[in-house]
Amino acid sequence: MTAKIRPSKGAPYARILGVGGYRPTRVVPNEEILKYIDSSDEWIRSRSGIATRHWAGPEETVSAMSVEAAGKAIADAGITPEQIGGVIVSTVSHFKQTPAIATEIAHKIGAGKPAAFDISAGCAGFGYGLTLAKGLIVEGSAEYVLVIGVERLSDLTDLEDRATAFLFGDGAGAVVVGPSQEPAIGPTVWGSEGDKSHTIKQTVGWDEYRTTPLPGGDGDEVRQTLEEIRFPAITQEGQAVFRWAVFEMAKVAQQALDDAGVSPEDLDVFIPHQANMRIIDSMVKTLKLPESVTVARDVETTGNTSAASIPLAMERLLATGQAKSGDTALVIGFGAGLVYAATVVTLP
User: Fold this and answer.
1) Is 54 tagged catalytic?
2) Any idea where the Beta-ketoacyl-[acyl-carrier-protein] synthase III N-terminal domain is (predicted)?
């Protein structure tokens, strides 16, 4: 006899209830980057729009930055840490394969025993995490879910790579997602194009950067090889990524608007992944966004913080009054994989 499984019951919808961010105290201007590459401040600004970025110090770990951002988001949402039923952390710069950094963060914020796991979706990670959180709440597995995007990309930056040395920054952004009686997170348009995975990648794998002899191998041979391998860094084919982002991601953003039933004229805020100012401006033009739409341009002072860039930009817009609670915002992330995720949300 087949047992009848009781259906799960969650909230009818989900929404972002609070947001928080953490930027490391050290601000790094382009002049400091120019010590390592043959370039100029004018060239960096014209190509990327970046003037400064934040780099984490020894005490500003992935965990520490996440805890700071999470605490602000929880307070902003008006709940207690004990009410958190899920912690999702998106990062590519936590260097331990296991355990997930989400479990450590959950413990440090006093969340009790929530579901806790990491995801690796590069610069689209926040969108992936937001979608998973929405699913948990609507499905009934958790009432409140903490989504964190956090990176210490300075640890993965090759300062002698003229194409990427100036791009990356560090930081953490977090949101609390909770129940809603009306739609406040639209359908997600997400996907991947693995045939382009070579365009953004880590230079060498951790298995190649091994500090102990391989089983059955010659220890001296392994150590000699290690001396020839530089610490892994992120590299990319800039022009290929730029073309993909400009031409393909505008289509994804438009699809997210269409699926949510929102027109460009209905939109209040546009928060794209903070990869490059030229990409952002091109997407605004292609989408034909009205001048009334506030556009996040946090990349100028924060750089590319990958999974942290969207929540950090969201937090700054709300904190400075450029956006307000209840505004309708289009968010889209895209990056290594190549992966992407876009949705329309109501700001907390």
Assistant:
1) no
2) 117-194
Q: Which of 30, 54, 94, 273 is catalytic?
A: 273
Does 198 participate in catalysis according to the annotation?
Answer: no
pTM: 0.93
- How distant is the alpha carbon of residue 133 from its chain centre? 15
- Active-site residue 94, yes or no? no
State residue 192 phi and psi, 5-degree precision.
-150, 155
Q: What token pair was written down for 87?
A: 């912690």
Q: What are the CA-CA distances from residue 163 to residues 36, 113, 166, 232, 303 (Å)?
A: 12, 43, 8, 16, 14
Contacts of 181 (CB under 8 A, 6+ apart): 11, 12, 13
DSSP-assigned beta bridge partners for residue 185: 345
Closest CA to 143 of 80, 89, 73: 80
Q: How far is CA 129 from CA 148, 168, 276, 333, in A?
A: 8, 21, 22, 11
Note down pLDDT in tens along the chain; length 348 residues: 788 888 888 999 999 999 999 999 999 999 999 999 999 999 999 999 999 999 999 999 999 999 999 999 999 999 999 999 999 999 999 988 899 999 999 999 999 999 999 999 999 999 999 999 999 999 999 999 999 999 999 999 999 999 899 999 999 999 999 999 999 999 999 999 888 889 888 877 877 766 555 555 555 554 545 555 677 888 888 788 888 988 899 999 999 999 999 999 999 999 999 999 999 999 999 999 999 999 999 999 999 999 999 999 999 999 999 999 999 999 999 998 899 999 999 999
Where helices occur in the chain by DSSP H, the ranges are 30-33, 41-48, 62-77, 101-108, 125-139, 219-227, 238-260, 277-287, 299-302, 309-319
Q: Domains plus CATH for the chain?
A: 13-180 (3.40.47.10), 189-194+237-346 (3.40.47.10), 198-234 (no CATH)
